[in-house]
Amino acid sequence: MISVSFIFFSFCSAIALLLTSYVVYHVIIAPRFNPLRKLAGPPLNGPLHNHMSPVLDPFRSPRTHAAYVEKYGRNVRIRGLGPWDERLLPLDPVSVAHVLKNSTIYEKPWQSRRLITSLIGCGMLAAEGHVHKRQRRVATPAFSIQNMRALVPLVFSKGEELKDKWMNMSQAVKEENVASEKQNSGQVEIDICHWISRATFDVIGLAGFDYNFNAIQNESDELFAAYKEMFEIAVSQGDAVRTVLGIYFPILNNLFPDERAKTVHRCQETIRRVAGKLVQQKKSRIIDEQKSGSAYTGKDLLSLLLKSNIATDLPPDQRISDEDILHNINTFMFAGSDTTSLALTWTFLLLAKHPDLQTRLRTELLSIVPTTPISRLSSEETESLHNTLQNLPFLNNVCRESLRLVPPVHSSLRVATQDDEIPVSYPVHLSDGTISEQKSISVSKGSFVHVPVEAFNLDKGMWGPNAWDFDPDRWDHLSEDVLSLPGLYSNLLTFSAGPRSCIGMRFSMIEMKTFLYILLTTFTFAETDKRIYKANVVLTRPYVSGQFKKGSQCPLIVTPLESIATS
Fold first, then answer.
1. What is the DSSP string of 378-430?
2. Which of 95, 365, 383, 506 has its CA 20 to 30 Å from the CA of residue 104?
3. Confidence check: pLDDT of 486 > 60
4. How many other CB atoms sit within 10 Å of the CB of residue 267?
5. The pLDDT of residue 10 is above 70
6. Positive or negative: CA dihedral 490, 491, 496, 497
7. What CA–CA distance (Å, rounded) separates 265 from 36?
8. Is residue 84 within 8 Å of residue 30, measured between CB atoms?
9. What is the CA radius of gyration of the chain?
């Protein structure tokens, strides 16, 4: 008679054999047949060595990408997390355009989707295939030009509120200086990153679901605190090794949660309770208005999303659940506040580093200042002012140049869902040292493609020898190479390209230009003696040297123009 222990031992042995076979195949056997191994790429210093740090670190990545192009051509093989992870790093515009255009073949890998979903749910950032297509179809009407223009007065009002807050801070410093008989300049050191983030949270709260965080005035709102803590602390201050382990073994966060996991869980509970209630209240109001025969006039994205989702011309199988709507509100909060606030922060820092360009831009902006204060303009007059703002040539150049030089999203990752041939427009360097004139590169199912957003924006072969410099005037004489680059916005990959390009690009540009207009016509910005450096922590964030644990910071000296005029 066969004993229970023998059966158990045999079962465990079989499982161990299967796991061992799986590991051996994927780590040792399969990589040897990966067609990407035929491509040239940087050397490895050992079996566990990889190329992630030099490729992902924005302090090193521009030099790394330039060296790779020179040595290995424009389609490079790099090593990911282990021997099984051979990746394609395409620096050929035709190759990148193919990957971004064919979003059903090249999806975000499950690892990226699991990380995003664990934070903000399965909204448009994490969804793929028919789920993403359905969500995008429901959300697209909310981001129409007409609906975005309707939000312009809101953005102006929050820009004015931030301006007033900074003026009060300056006045307080001035009064302190008078009391202590110091120089009465009114200049104050302000963490631009922190304050603009609070302002963009306010904007997206009202524009997103008609909810006033009132973050410019204080940070006491529990929903604001939940979003802010999850986006800043849980994301940027988390342990990288533990985060990776949590992706591959999510049960770890349930059985042995670290401080990051506890923070995320606590914040998500608040978001589900407060934001979930807002979704249900808004949905009920829309349905009640429809029953009474009148149209609901809410202009926030949640209202527009809900109205689009229950529209009679939308087939029932194309509608999305209330949970998906909440996930997409979370997505709008993350993508609509963090990325825009960082883009503005980097722009102000660049202008502080180039005071001559700052003065030039301010002169252009002051030329359109109306005689009536912005706070007294009607909605129509505010929209008219914004239309004028949109067409200012040097403002356009500064925005494009800032978004080119420091894209908030440093890079992106895709995985091939099937075998594919990626077209090329440059000769392909092979691992045996030869150069091939082949027309495509073979990619096998499961291979990762690293889309280098920053590398394309800083490519000296495309943008010229001064590609790493802040030069807004370059946009007045672009080369044919630049004009052929893929990108949703001005031949840049900053807002991506193809079916998964940024749906909120128009809204982001409204915020960016409006805040630049209001703040630059009121203040001057100068550097402090603190060194600011870039770090790729989900997004490209500014940090003060030696103060990484304090989170993103970008302190600048802010001085009211009126103080300069009277000094």
1. -HHHHHHHHHHHHT-HHHHHHHHHHHHHS-SS--EEEEESS-EEEE-SSPEEB
2. 506
3. yes
4. 22
5. no
6. positive
7. 40
8. yes
9. 26
Q: Can you tell me the distance from the alpha carbon of 297 to that of 289, in angstroms, rounded to the nearest whole number?
A: 9
Reading the block at residue 383, the tokens are 């929209």
| Residue 77 parent element (H or E) | strand 75-79
Side chain identity, residue 129:
G
For 473, other C-beta atoms within 10 Å of its C-beta total 12
* Residue 486 to residues 172, 340, 341, 467, 470, Cα–Cα distance (Å): 48, 21, 24, 17, 21
Is the Cα dihedral 219, 223, 226, 230 positive or negative?
negative
- Let me know: does 420 contact 550? Beta carbons within 8 Å: no
Q: Both tokens of residue 520? A: 């630059």
Residue 444, φ and ψ in degrees, nearest 5 = -90, 155
Burial class of 91 by CB neighbour count within 10 A (0 to 12, 13 to 18, 19+): buried
Which structure tokens are listed for 220? 């006491």
Residues 6+ apart with CB under 8 A from 238: 260
For helices 152-179 and 505-520, angle between their N-to-C axes, nearest 10 degrees: 30
Distances (CA, A) of 498 to 80, 106, 486, 487, 488: 25, 11, 9, 8, 8
549's tokens: 């644990």
Q: Which residues touch 328 (CB under 8 Å, ≥6 apart)?
A: 123, 124, 135, 139, 305, 320
For position 183, what pLDDT does the model report?
Answer: 66
Predicted confidence at residue 564, as pLDDT, reads 59
Token output for 443: 């990619």
**3-state DSSP assignment of residue 64:** helix
Whether residue 566 is predicted with pLDDT greater than 60 in this model: the reply is no
The answer to whether 328 touches 304, Cβ cutoff 8 Å, is: no
- Residue 170 pairs in a beta bridge with none
Alpha helices in 180-258 (DSSP H): 192-209, 222-228, 235-236, 240-248, 251-255
Report d(CA 443, CA 432) in Å as an integer: 18
**For residue 463, what are its two tokens?**
């943008």
3-state SS class at 540: strand
3-state secondary structure of 81: coil
For residue 567, pLDDT over 60 is answered with no
d(CA 440, CA 459): 22
- At residue 348, the pLDDT reads 98
Helix axes 301-309, 192-209, angle to 10 degrees: 30
